[in-house]
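Handover notes (outgoing to incoming on-call)

Open items:
1. DRTGG domain-containing protein: sequence verified, structure written out, both below. Nothing else pending on this one.
2. Nothing else urgent.
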Amino acid sequence: MSTKHEQILRHIEELAVGEKISVRQIARALSVSEGTAYRAIKEAENQKLVNTIERVGTIRIEKKKKENIERLTYAEVLNIVDGLVLGGRGGLHKTLTKFVIGAMQLDDMMRYIDAGSLLIVGNRLKAHETALLAGAAVLVTGGFDASDDVKKLADELELPVISTSYDTFTVATMLNRAIYDQLIEKEILLVEDILTPLENTITLHTKDRVAHFNEANRKTTHAGYPVIEKNGKLVGIVTSHDVIGKTEDELIEKVMTRNPISVTGKTSVASAGHSMIWEGIDLMPVETENGMLAGIISRQDVLKAFQMAQRQPHQGETIDDIVKTQMKTIENKSSTVEFTVVPQMTNQFGSLSYGALTTIMADAGSRAIKMKKRGESVPESISLYFIKHVQLGSVIIVEPRILQMTRRFVKVDFEIQSEGELIAKGMIMYQLFDK
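DRTGG domain-containing protein structure tokens:
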């Protein structure tokens, strides 16, 4: 039987896109307390089912697919530019395909505007109306107003007309930044992207017996299974190690590991993988926010995700990406790398930053480990000390040397030189991510 929380979330999912909701409305419709309704609406906001807009309220929005995450809704634009809705409030949930700067003659401007566009323009009243008739929303910069006719037309067409106090250049910069940030977010693999969903997951119940585990093991050869209660709540995990020496009549709840290490769908794959290495586990349950089992991930799933991510083209660059693009492998020394200190890699004093150097060291060390032993590795601890400051424009050589390698750990020493002079020393302990 589903909980009140889940019933509210299902109710919100079934609402029409663009419909306005409130805590009091949900509480009355589903006969729940306002506190329960408030928590469920917040969860719906985290799941990108609704969007709360100042001076507008909470509205049901279309949940964006990850491949379309770089597209903004007009509601998101409103929040980004701290705007005021002048008209067309009913269209805030819609997604824009592009934005056009209205810094040209009206006829020229209209060649670039089509349905789903956002025209960014000042107090050019004729442009406001023409854009709406072409199916585009309007963002009026400089704090200017729109005419009553334009506001009425916006309401009829359900195309937002938004006013902001920022100038056109600042608004374009802010929207570019938001899209760029979403491109980076799109590239971050989350557990929800790789999990085996609940409907494809073999589960056991607390009142099942070891015989049920053995039967599932014979069919699938999997070494572990999540244990749930009748309502779907995760309560434990049972593995081959737990049932060794137990009779077939023994209850699963007597042999299982309670309160297993788990993650949510919004956890990054990198974080989940690190936990699996750290705890030495091969199977990890994935929970919903209220403790229900959503699926599982395995060590193999994480490894495949890492390998796939390395082959994907990057659209939005993080600081790590910018730093790593400077790295070049030295001929005849495949594990030794060379880079030039560029402005993005410096601190406030204009010398090489600690963060940039640790990023390059960690990557160079991982390359050296991969050449020695095929597989992924995760830095666990880093020691670094500078012997002298490294200035902007300097060419740096990082030479990793594997000191010790066991089944689970690798210790790598680093010498960092510039113009033949030792400028830093470091050491990193890596954990190996074996299959």
